[in-house]
Amino acid sequence: YTLSAYGRKDIDWQTMQLVLSASLSQSDQELLRQGDRMNYRALSYSLQGSLGLDLIRGYRLEYDIRFQGLSSHLAGRELRSNELNQRLQLSLDFLPTHLQGKLHAKHCRNNGAYLGQRDFLFLGASLSYKPSKQVELVLDGDNLSDIRSYSIRRLEELEEYWTTYHLRPRSLVLSLRLSL
User: Fold this and answer.
1) Burial of 89 by CB count in 10 Å (0-12 exposed, 13-18 middle, 19+ buried)?
2) CA geometry: angle at 173 spanning 168 and 175, to 5°?
3) Which of 10, 12, 92, 160 has an alpha carbon 20 to 30 Å from 36's alpha carbon atom?
4) pLDDT band at 112 (very low <50, low <70, confident <90, very high)
5) CA-CA distance, 24 to 63, in Å (whole number)?
6) Digit-coded pLDDT (tens) for 42-81
7) DSSP 132
8) With contact defined as beta carbons under 8 Å apart, do 136 and 126 qualify?
9) What does the DSSP assignment read for 35-102?
10) Global confidence as pTM
11) Cα(168)–Cα(50) distance, rounded to whole angstroms?
């Protein structure tokens, strides 16, 4: 069976928004494996939340969080997996229509065994200057925490997945955009 809930509240929709959702799923099965009957149980859950608000005029904060997990039991062996993902973004309007900035951070935590490092923090930023309607100068910084690779472990019913991500190194890109 599966149970889900969702809620959303806009408070003066231009300035603040709050979204929450949750789900829970449980399954019990009997499996025939090499002539033996085995009982398999799994419980999975997920919680998600999102908050967006204008701190003051021209400064907006957005935060998203997701926590999910699975616990399974088969033939005396129990497996557990939890994963937490958080994202934070701050949009800054220093000089309206001329100078804007964005800062963003993402945090991931995966409790998979044999991974070594389990927490990862990714940082990025951008700054945009538009002296006129035809000219825009943009400075982008990506992977400022300079993480080269990371691995995660994910469990699903009777399956286990390992994924390794290889990232580009820290980069700063300055670009000039012209509109004719």
Assistant:
1) middle
2) 145
3) 160
4) low
5) 23
6) 888 999 999 998 888 889 999 999 999 888 888 778 888 8
7) S
8) no
9) TEEEEEEEEEEEEEEEEEEEEETTEEEEEEEEEEEEEEEETTEEEEEEEEEEEEEEEEEEETTTEEEE
10) 0.81
11) 28
